[in-house]
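Retro notes, structure queue

What went well: the backlog is down to a handful. What didn't: a couple of records were mislabeled last round, so from now on we paste the full input next to the output in the thread. Example, using Molybdopterin molybdenumtransferase from Micromonospora pattaloongensis:
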Amino acid sequence: MTAHSAVAAEHTPAPAPIAWDEARSRVHAAGLAAAPDAVELALPLTDGHTLAAPLTTRTALPAFPTSSVDGWAVRGAGPWRPVGRVLAGGTPAPLTEDGTAVEIATGAMVPDGAAAVLRVEESSRTPDGRISGTPRLQPEWRTPGEEAAAGEELLPAGTPVDPGVIGLAASCGHDLLRVRPAPRAALLVFGDELLTSGPPGAGRVRDALGPAVPAWLRRYGVRVDPQNVIGPVEDTLDAHVGALRRALAEVDLVCTTGGTMHGPVDHLHPALRQLDAEYVVNTVAVRPGFPMLLARVRGADGRPRFVAGLPGNPQSAIVALVSLVAPLVAGLQGRPEPTLPRVTLAEPVPGRGDYTHLALVRVDPRDGTARPLRHVGSAMLRGLARADGFAVIPPGTNGDAGSRVLLAPLPLAAGERP
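Corresponding output:
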């Protein structure tokens, strides 16, 4: 049985974990294949979506010569006789006679026949009312096509749409953009031992992932509606199957917390079997974060939905988000697989044998050095609250001080480009 085959009989042995980087590529490809159809939306509605087609200009930018200063558009040698005024939004008559000038505002169209624009603060009036001064050698206007030629591709498909992209599209003359909508997600919290309010005690622990995971997902550009954060789900197989089936009918991705092992109340794998799910990834050779999974379920409309099984320990769950959910979501958005930056280790970080080690670090923005944090046990969140991401220590290696390693960043801002 391979990681791509259908979930098999109940007592099938767990497969060998696959390499961390292979798992990321595999889930990204699955997301890309399942990316929803593109839609056309009005510009103000596209923030947080993804370009489904390249952004091109409808005209040259600028489309006409545009004055970059307030002053006088002049023809021939001075002094110049004023013959009119042109403001932004107007179409001026051409200057046809030498020795003439029109007053011009910043952003206004430069009239045909103008040889220069004289800044107003560098001009003066002669006694007979003509304009005198010396125009600068550098032209004081923007020429057509200076920013972009007509039809030029400015941004490729797969670019996240943010306010800068929206403004650029508007300047190009677009009223609509063809985009891929933001994926929708739900969170199912598993575990009868969890409290949803108040302090932990008497054998029960406070659920930290129910409030936190939706916030992380939103920072990846995923839509998570409050009604789709559900739990704790009762620790029975029927309750797990029912909750998964209801969520999968509404969203593109269901994240679950806990239940990824094969213990007496770990019902996720049996529930996936009942849903005829297919594993994309079933266990990854990474520490912390073991075990994690991603499965695919065919929806009633024929489109695949996904279940991301996150471990119940809080830091391990976030490792699973960074490892599997981030590249899956990029694929669903029609974006490239996230490229990981590199950082320099300021202190040594041990390896984890045959497993990739994701070590929580804080990155100094001044020099790009990464320092490992304390309080980084699988069940701990104190280190995570101060972290910028995870230093990636490959299998069979140690991270020596001064070595350059990949960084799996945490999504610290909404719409952040990995």
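Agreed that this is the format going forward. Reviewer comment attached to the example: Residues 314-332 form the longest helix (19 residues).
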